[in-house]
Amino acid sequence: MALPYVVREGLANVRRAPFAAFASTSAMVVSLVLIGVFVFLSLYLRTVSDYVGNRLGEVEVYLDPGLDSLSARALAARSATLPGVVNARFISEAEARAEFQQEFGESVEEGVLPTSIRLRLNPEYANPDSLQRLASRLQGYRGVDEVEYDEDFVGKVQRNLRLLNTAGLGIVLLVVSAALFLVANTIRLTVYARRLLIRTMKLVGATDRFIRRPFLVEGMVQGGIAGVVAALVLGALLAGVQTWSPTLFTNRLYNMLPLAIALVLGLFLGWIGTYIALRRFIRNVALH
How far apart are CA 234 and CA 187, in angstroms? Predict the structure, then answer.
């Protein structure tokens, strides 16, 4: 079948049944907007997860009181080479006293606070197992008095983040499935309204593939239109949120990705929804 004919018939089908086209396109717009919103939330949940991981991935290594400054700095350099360690900073007693005064508003005498090494880890290593292995290794170093991190809090946060990520993925899959079901059933109704046309085409010898292709083009056209409309709606929602709170959704890549997904997914939903709707319907059209 010539491609120009398929495209021409697909576009003609949209013009022949504007109400049906509007109904299926509207269903796809609603579905794509919902999917886009959940993609926004999923992307920024990952940002929050990385931020929390950076905050949790901090280990304080307290040094023996008698360890000299040169040995302490050498130990910090050695600690920086451990797996997962992004940065190792030596904290002198003077720096520790200054931090204490800044945080609590009170000064302390010399010799009270120990020197330490503050390790910052890659967020991927901010989990109980990795932190436990790191702490055990550091405890074996000469000059290390104590290794401290909030093990219970790290475990709780990691469990909550996994739960949120799993729930977010589940919701996105649920919305995609619901969208596909909604689009397929809406398109099935529009195809049912043309059953006499399909019956006539089959009577004159048209194959199922010949009949199906213009409908697939029609579905992709509707999906493309739905994708553009959904991207505009998502862009307006994003602009509204940024006006309300300028500090939210500031990542340009994360802001553009759901809009691009809406455009591509619109074409896909239009195609796959039409294909599902037609797969059995065309075969089962009675010829008598």
Answer: 24
Is residue 45 pLDDT above 80, yes or no?
no
Residues in the chain: 288
Q: What is the pTM of this model?
A: 0.60
> Residue 64 — φ and ψ, nearest 5°?
-60, 140
Backbone φ and ψ of 61, nearest 5° = -110, 105
Find residue 148's DSSP bridge partners.
60
Within 8 A by CB and 6+ apart from 208, the residues are 282, 283
Q: What is the pLDDT of residue 254?
A: 66
**Arch. (CATH architecture) of 58-148:** 2-Layer Sandwich (3.30)
Cα Rg, the chain, nearest whole Å: 30
Closest CA to 117 of 93, 150, 153, 83: 93
DSSP 247-259: TSS--HHHHHHHH
How far, in Å, CA of 224 to CA of 32, rounded?
Answer: 11
DSSP lists the bridge partners of residue 88 as 119
CA distance 181 to 251: 32
Kindly report which listed range (2-11, 50-59, 65-74, 78-87) carries the lowest average pLDDT score: 2-11
* Residue 123 DSSP symbol: G
Q: What is the domain partition of the chain in residue ranges? A: 3-51+158-281, 58-148
Contacts of 117 (CB under 8 A, 6+ apart): 60, 61, 63, 72, 75, 76, 79, 88, 89, 90, 91
Distance between CA 88 and CA 45 in Å, rounded?
A: 28
Closest CA to 260 of 39, 28, 30, 22: 39
* Residue 116 β-bridge partners: 62, 91
* 164, two tokens: 């949120």
Local structure of residue 125 (DSSP, 8 states): G
Strands 144-148 and 85-91, how do they pair?
A: unpaired
